[in-house]
Amino acid sequence: MKQLLMGNEAIAYGALRAGVGLVCGYPGTPSTEVLETVARLKRAGQAPDVYVEWSVNEKSAMEVAAGAAYAGMRCMVTMKQVGLNVASDPLMSFAYVGLEGGTVILVADDPGPISSQTEQDTRTFASFAKVPVFDPCSPEEAYRMVQDAFELSEREKTPVILRPTTRVCHASATIETAPFPAPKKPRGFVKDPGRWVIFPWLSFANHAKIEARNDRLSRELSDYPGNELLPGEGRRAVAVGGVSAAYTAEAQSLLGTRAPTLRVGTPFPFPTEKALSFLKNADEVFVFEELDPVIERELTYLCGRYGLRVSIHGKLSGEMPRSGENSVELIAEKLAEYLGVPAPQRREKPDASLPVRPPTLCAGCPHRASFYAVKQAMKGRKCLFAGDIGCYTLGNAKPLDMTDTCLCMGAGITIAQGVRHAEPDTVCFSFTGDSTFFHTGLAGIANAVYNGVDMVPVILDNSTTAMTGRQPNPSTGVNAVGEVAQVIDIAGVLRALGVSSVQTVDPLDQDAAVSAVRKAADAKGVNAIIFRSPCVGLFKPETRMTVEADACIGCTRCIREIGCPAISFADGKAVIDNTCVGCGLCTQICPVGAIGGARDV
Question: Does one domain contain both 593 and 531?
Answer without folding.
Answer: no
